[in-house]
Amino acid sequence: MFLTQKVFLEYTGIGATMRVVFLGTGGTYPCTERNVMAIAVQIDKDVVLLDCGEGTQRQFMKSNVSFMSTRWIFITHYHGDHFLGLPGLIQSMNLNDRKRAIDIFGPAGTRDLMDFLLNAGHFAPCYEIVSHDLEPGDEVALEGFSVLVAKADHTVPSLAYAIVEKDSPGRFDTKKAADLGIPEGPLFRRLQRGETVEVGGKRITPDQVLGPSRKGRKVVYSGDTRPCKSVIELAADADLLIHDATLLSSEGEIASDFGHSTCKEAGEVAKMAGARALALVHCSPRYKEQAALVEEAKASFPDVFAPSDLDEYVVKRVQK
Ligand SMILES: [Zn+2]
Ligand SMILES: [Zn+2]
């Protein structure tokens, strides 16, 4: 029985919508309440997919996001609950006559693994599939945003990712523009794009008619990890931190042994990073209810939630 979809926060900002769809929120293996890890971050019309556990394509079909809109995939590490959905998803895109290329990023070994997966069985892709090995410190520049890469602290090589939207120009002050004698039309657009223009022999710079630039949004996904400095630094001032919260503190020793965080530790990371909101994911199949998980993280970080599969979080732009 799948839970109904929830929207946690209405988008009221400017520019493109940034919507996080929690396709799978469970750790280790799928259970009746949760599928394994996959998070779709929809920015305007394209989707960045963070991890792709087994069954991700069916989760897409139950959500409001088409799997065909996936343009970039970032895998945190190669434990099965984070990547076994890749071959099925890629082959279904082929059957749906995909034409657009897809880029798949992950830690060292991604290119070799993708070569293996794409050559398993009888499969001839009809679209371009490009895979990339990443290292901590890399930055992947995409359209309107970039993805920053940091080291996570897990039992195998694992990466954490930050999706960072570019800052937008400030608000255009039409009154100031009129006072400066700028005619409405193409010159407005050029100033908004950051260009200097000339009106009646006078040079007009964008800062004369634009307000302060508007900060881009930031969504961070830790993947599987112990609490660590590199993820805290990556998550500095994040609008949303999605963090490993596999177990409650009563199972803290197991969390530590298997390279995971407790809900309490996830709350502490969010607090240290100065994040605006925290989503607890990769919850152990042993927990059928999320209330206790949220309660534990809340002790150090109040703006926390534990999404169910297919829940959405719309990231709002705030003036920082
Ligand atoms: Zn995992
Ligand atoms: Zn893992």
Structural commentary:
The structure is a single chain. With 320 residues, the chain is of the alpha/beta class. Helix content is 23%, strand content 24%. The strands form three sheets. A seven-stranded mixed beta sheet has the order 6-5-4-3-2-1-16. It has a seven-stranded mixed beta sheet with strand order 7-8-9-12-13-14-15. A two-stranded antiparallel sheet has the order 10-11. Strand 2 and strand 3 (46-50) form a beta hairpin. The chain starts with 17 loop residues before the first strand and ends in a 6-residue tail after the last strand. Residues 1-14 have low confidence and may be disordered. The site of one zinc ion has 4 residues, from loops.
Summarize it.
The protein is an alpha/beta fold and 320 residues long. It has helices at residues 56-62, 80-83, 86-95, 110-118, 174-179, 186-192, 229-234, 252-257, 263-273, 291-298; strands at residues 18-24, 38-43, 46-50, 70-74, 102-107, 129-134, 139-141, 145-151, 159-165, 197-199, 202-204, 218-221, 240-244, 278-281, 304-305, 312-314.
